[in-house]
Design a protein that fits this description.
Enzyme class: isomerase
Number of strands: 17
Helix content: 40-55%
Radius of gyration: 23 Å
Mean pLDDT: 86
Strand order of the largest sheet: 10-7-13-12-14-15
GO biological process, one term: DNA topological change
Strand content: 15-25%
CATH architecture of the largest domain: 3-Layer(aba) Sandwich
CATH topology of the largest domain: Dna Topoisomerase Vi A Subunit, Chain: A, domain 2
Keywords: ATP-binding, DNA-binding, Isomerase, Magnesium, Metal-binding, Nucleotide-binding, Topoisomerase
Distance between the termini: 50 Å
Protein name: Type 2 DNA topoisomerase 6 subunit A
Subunit structure: Homodimer. Heterotetramer of two Top6A and two Top6B chains.
Shape: globular
Length: about 375
């Protein structure tokens, strides 16, 4: 197929063609008398490197081969072949399925050996197919279980639905719950906006406080609810908002090591999805709080650090994502005071404190507002 023909294809058509090309490669290997195999980056922590140029996690140079020269390898390739056939047919029929459904569907395949022993196994195979095909699972029409992540703010967009296109204003046309981010945010077209910055918020309680207090309207802010560790769709739409609309992105989480990793996944990607970091991560994102310094300055209600928190903080001191003067200073302070705090701890100073004082002051110091 020529580059011109590929360029005129839809995302779904490209995904289907890549799947067919993978299957054809297995066939060609058989036809040549070769043992079928599939080469992948080695998916271990030791082969994940922090790319200093792009500032995201990527796979290193080490590879591993799935080969049919062993029973175990042959089973893996059999599962891959059945999954490729299922996904290609799904795209032909313009249907979709969830990762969980794929696991159960495999029990009905006509080869017992092709079935998955666990959902972790089927999830990993879908990730393998993403890597070797260069196509995301969203374009395979594979969906995760609903994440429920939402956004609220002065953004007008057009989305594709099964009933056609619809235009939505993410303040005027939605309820207090906001606009739910679809599984594949690349189906969204940004039409117009009055956004000055994007604020990604870890917890639902804090997201609700910001909306109830009108923070999105007062500061022309788009509030993105991360809902804990953010789903791929949430990270993808955040990246698009930054790249396509040239908007600053700030991340507001609890003040503990696990929440700092939530920021890290938004900004620099995660080890699990290293093959998609340049598609999902926003290296320009900045951390607004809760900082360990805030715990001291505002005398916030706290919990003591558990041993697991201390270990995680010490690990972050060795993590390239946190090897900056700012993070080293904050983490060392937290280890010294041995305390952590939630976003909602700011309510100890009143329900309006976070929107009237804390965020305006912090964002002002950062030059965001």
């Amino acid at each position: 197929m020529s580059d011109t023909e590929r360029g005129s294809q839809t995302a779904e058509e490209r995904a289907r063609q890549q799947l067919i090309d993978l299957a054809a490669e297995f066939y060609d290997q058989f036809d040549r008398g070769d043992v079928p195999q599939m080469t992948l980056p080695t998916r271990s922590k030791s082969n994940i490197v922090f790319d200093e140029e792009s500032h995201v996690w990527v796979y290193g140079d080490r590879t591993s081969t799935r080969s049919a020269n062993s029973v175990r390898g042959a089973r893996k390739l059999l599962k891959a072949a059945y999954t490729i056939e299922f996904l290609a047919r799904q795209l032909d029929e313009e249907r979709s399925s969830t990762l969980r459904e794929l696991y159960y569907l495999s029990e009905s395949w006509d080869s017992e050996e092709a079935g998955f022993s666990s959902q972790d196994e089927s999830n990993q195979l879908v990730e393998d197919l993403e890597i070797v095909s260069g196509v995301t699972r969203e374009d395979f029409h594979m969906r995760p279980e609903e994440s429920g992540a939402t956004l609220m703010g002065p953004l007008e967009l057009r989305e594709q639905t099964r009933r056609g296109e619809r235009e939505i204003h993410c303040q005027e046309d939605v309820g207090e719950g906001g606009y739910q981010i679809p599984n594949n945010p690349d189906t969204i077209e940004f039409l117009d906006h009055d956004i000055d910055f994007v604020l990604c918020v870890e917890t639902g309680g804090m997201r609700d406080r910001l909306i109830e207090n009108g923070f999105d309207e007062a500061h022309n802010c788009l509030v993105v609810h991360l809902k804990g560790q953010p789903a791929r769709a949430t990270r993808r739409i955040t990246k698009r908002l930054h790249d396509e609309l040239d908007l600053p992105v700030v991340v507001f989480t609890d003040g503990d090591p696990w929440s700092y990793r939530i920021f890290g996944s938004v900004a620099y990607g995660s080890i699990k999805s290293a093959h998609l970091s340049e598609y999902l991560a926003t290296p320009e994102a900045r951390f607004v709080g809760i900082q360990p310094q805030d715990i001291v300055d505002y005398d916030l209600p706290t919990d003591p650090l558990a041993d697991s928190d201390i270990n995680a903080l010490e690990s972050e001191l060795e993590d390239p994502r946190f090897m900056t003067d700012y993070w080293e200073e904050q983490i060392e302070l937290q280890l010294d005071i041995e305390k952590k705090a939630e976003q909602q701890a700011l309510a100890s100073r009143g329900l309006d404190f976070v929107t009237e004082t804390y965020l305006p002051e912090r964002l002002g110091e950062m030059g965001v507002i």
